[in-house]
Amino acid sequence: MEKNTGKFMKELWSLLLSAQKNASGVPQQFLDAKEEETKKKKAENDRIFDEIQRRKEKEAKESEEEKERQMVASAIIWVHILTSNYCRMTDLANILPRNQIEGERDVLVCNLEMRMELV
Fold first, then answer.
1. Alpha-carbon distance 51 to 42, whole Å?
2. pLDDT, mean of residues 19-34
3. What is each CA distance from 116 to 15, 71, 78, 103, in whole angstroms?
4. CA distance 19 to 34
5. Where would I find the H helices in 1-119?
6. pTM attached to this predicted model
7. Is the Cβ–Cβ distance between 104 and 92 less than 8 Å?
8. Are the C-beta atoms of 101 and 89 separated by less than 8 Å?
């Protein structure tokens, strides 16, 4: 312990002199260290904020793409339904009288409009 006393006293004395020169009474070395620590924390917070923003943007983009995929899938299903119903109506045209075909078409159109309102 005695062998480090001289080194300790030298460091202490330089800190005391620095504190005496500074208006706040705090050694400049401590102020510089605190400033550096603050800069590092700010840089880390900025990095975290940027990462959160990047993830939010990515999630929003993925959500939008999923909505578009669902809309395309719905459109494909509707085309299939309409095509199937049209083929069925065409087949009915060969079997049923004309006024019954018109009624069937009206029912199909009504069903289609109701389904489109649900989407």
1. 14
2. 91
3. 79, 12, 9, 20
4. 15
5. 5-21, 28-93, 98-118
6. 0.48
7. yes
8. yes
